[in-house]
Design goal:
The structure holds two protein chains of two kinds. Chain A has helices spanning about 5-30, 35-75. By secondary structure, chain A is an all-alpha fold. By secondary structure, chain B is an all-alpha fold. Chain B has 13 helices and no strands. Chain B has helices spanning about 5-30, 35-65, 65-70, 75-85, 90-95, 105-110, 115-135, 140-145, 155-160, 170, 175, 180-185, 200-210. In chain B, helix 1 packs antiparallel against helix 2 (about 35-65). The longest helix of chain B is centred in the N-terminal third of the chain and has 30 residues, at about 35-65. The chains are: A mainly alpha, B mainly alpha. The interface between A and B is large, with 39 and 37 residues.
Chain lengths: ~80, ~210
């Protein structure tokens, strides 16, 4: 697989990383200090952030695969 | 290691740390998106966070069943204090002293016992949170006592989850004998005044005072 250097891919992955870090921080907070606010935030906001981060990552992967197919057609 | 709960806490933290380390590496080094980088990111953004979220969710779900979680909203403190009072004779407190209920006595009595009971109980919990923020946030707990109500009458089926109503001792009691069918069908409430209620007598008193 060739290395991609698309700036938008890197930007999306950076957003995904920050969102995942935030979501994980919420989960860790909820298990260390299991009060009402931390648990509710982790199980709602944390969940949404984690899902969005995964979707961003999948977007980058799918774009990459699509680009690879375009390159294949050009080669043919 | 004390219990599965501790193991879940540890798993949540360890998986989060591994994922965090991968993401910090990516953010600092910003490597080219080779197959190896993508695999590392798959682990850092998807696999380890998923594992952390799974153990964190189970741990969170367990936490939401505990009495201290219910008492997290200040208007519930009189109820949790009563449940923890070893001298209280309220039905709620008597049940809290039963090992089967223990520190989950609020949840055990108020959960929905059905196939999707846990889901509907948690969905109702979100409605509680909404009402708490909307109406009770700044209200003193004493004032809130007479104002809070269940959305629906307390179902006998929740009592019958433990008290089957099929034992001879139950059926032979004169008060039960005359109303067996209506108790089982939920037409006559187990927790009505004069039977086994009120379950939280201090709140009932406030409710009666509030009525004109």
């Amino acid at each position: 697989m060739t290395a991609l250097s698309s700036p938008s891919a890197h930007r999306r992955l950076r957003y995904a990383c920050w969102m995942t870090i935030a979501a994980l921080a919420m989960f860790v907070w909820s298990v260390i200090d299991p009060g009402v606010i931390p648990v509710m935030i982790a199980m709602s906001v944390g969940q949404v952030l984690g899902t969005l981060a995964t979707m961003l990552f999948l977007w980058v992967v799918l774009s990459d695969l699509r680009r690879a197919r375009v390159l294949d057609r050009e080669r043919r | 290691m004390k219990s599965i709960a501790d193991l879940l806490v540890l798993a949540t933290i360890v998986f989060a740390l591994i994922a965090g380390a991968i993401m910090v590496w990516y953010l600092i080094r910003q490597p080219a998106l080779t197959a190896a980088t993508k695999l590392a990111l798959l682990a850092g953004i998807f696999v380890f966070p998923l594992l952390s979220a799974m153990s964190g969710n189970v741990s969170g779900y367990e936490t939401t069943q505990k009495r201290h979680f219910c008492g997290g909203c200040h208007v519930m403190i009189p109820y949790t204090d009563d449940a923890e009072n070893p001298n209280s004779t309220s039905l709620a407190s008597l049940h809290a002293r039963n090992e089967l209920f223990g520190d989950r006595n609020c949840y055990r009595c108020h959960e929905d016992y059905a196939m999707f009971g846990a889901v509907t109980t948690k969905a109702t919990g979100l409605v509680h949170a909404y009402h708490y923020v909307k109406s009770y946030w700044s209200m003193p707990a004493e004032d809130a006592l007479g104002k809070m109500h269940l959305y629906n009458p307390y179902p006998n089926s929740n009592c019958m989850h433990c008290h089957s109503t099929r034992l001879p001792g139950f059926e032979e009691l004169a008060d039960h004998k005359g109303a067996l069918e209506s108790i089982r069908e939920g037409k006559e409430s187990c927790v009505s005044s004069g039977c086994h209620g009120p379950v939280h007598p201090f709140s009932k008193k406030k409710e009666e005072e509030a009525q004109p």
